[in-house]
Write a structure and sequence with these properties.
It contains two helices and four strands. The chain is an alpha+beta fold. It has a two-stranded antiparallel ribbon with strand order 1-2. It has two domains: about 35 residues, no CATH class; about 50 residues, LysM domain (Membrane-bound Lytic Murein Transglycosylase D, Chain A), CATH 3.10.350.
């Protein structure tokens, strides 16, 4: 996945570089991001058909705009709009 320079993931301290994209044969500016580590214990949520990542963030974390934190904690989920029913996602506990 390409992370663009103006992305929220391109925070200070990220390594910025130009990478070759073999799919289109072009060089693109991108960012290497150090994924955060979480030392807090987790609780788990089992995904159901009616779930949305922002609403799950609101339910467990109190703010819908923290959905991207859930994506950070669950790096095996690549698409927040296509989470399979029955998937267990990690939720940080305070």
């Amino acid at each position: 996945m390409t992370i663009f320079y103006d992305s929220r993931y391109a925070e200070d301290g990220s390594v910025r570089f130009t990478a070759y994209d073999a799919r289109d044969g072009k060089y693109k500016k991108t960012v290497f991001r150090q994924w955060p580590s979480y030392s807090t214990p987790f609780t788990y949520h089992t995904w159901v058909e009616t779930d949305r990542i922002d609403l799950v963030a609101l339910e467990y974390m109190g703010r819908a705009d923290l959905w991207w934190n859930l994506m950070d904690i669950n790096p095996d989920i690549l698409d927040p709009f296509n989470i399979s029913i029955g998937t267990k996602i990690r939720i940080p506990r305070d």
